[in-house]
Design goal:
348 residues; alpha/beta; 5-stranded parallel sheet; 14 helices
Length: 348
Amino acid sequence: MNIQTTALATTAAGHAAAAITNDYGWPDTPWLEWKLLTGEQIDALDRETTVVLVSCSPIEVHGPHLPTCSDFVEADGITFRSAQLLKKKHPELTFVHLPPIWVGAQCIPHVGSLEFCPKTIIKVLTDLGRTLCKQGFKNIWVGSFHGGPRHFVAIEAAAHKVNKKYGGNMLSMFSLLMNQLTGGSTELADLLGGKTDRTREQLAGDTHGGTVETSLLLHLTGKHVHPVYKDLERNTVTKELARVGEEPVTMNANAGLFESLRSFKWRLRFFEDYTYAGDPAISDADYGEEILDVLAGLSVEPLSQVYKQTLPKKKWHSPLWKVRFMFLWNWLNWLFERIAGRKDNPTW
């Protein structure tokens, strides 16, 4: 790297740090902002040690208390903290951050949510991956904090296509962590209940706009959290099923086809009537920081293995990848939602 290029990169780093602070107020940025770099500055980046980061999560309603941008702010937050830790382990790394892509599938059907088909996610991210790979950027990590299988499996499908067709190392970070940490569940009660100051019982059923997400948002961008969260009662799918006399449901890779479909049906019905699941009232910003540190800390080793290419790509997928047809075949999604009686049936 020559003196002129070094100067350009240093200037870019300064601008990027200011930009991320202005956006979220987070200190000590570990990344450059792609949108603030010139073409020359981008071209000067070492392709082998540069990782392009982008969050792909929906604009979606999260209760009466959280902003609709919650998912991609959380995704950025976890990615941000993970990048900070990875820089300590691999100081040669350069992270470059793209603006969030708010194309998301399987959103809760309330005014304010913007929903897209899985095939749209696949197309958008495949085009992004193709463009980056043709410029020599192979390491592309897609962050998300949205637990809808139609969404994160679609990200996996796009990454799989980019890696196979264009020689990329594109990754769904959410899917990797599901594989490595949760065994396929999109609920974090087992993981966080043993490593933070909230118990597993307190976090059971906390899947959307509850303690975890409210605490994260209080930490990451507290000014956008409405104080009404303090007055919200605990609300979960299990509680609703008990009210109507139904057995609890499970949703993980080992649940089996019948139970997965049953869980999917009841979650669809639950979120037609409710906009959050969990207990927002027991949230606080310190707990959000604790969650962030735990998740980022657990992410470092698998992400390090991805960067060093010591973790086979087949292990980058979520456990649901093996049944991806359930979430990516549009006609099957349409048919099941008709059977489940979803009132707001999307056009696939």
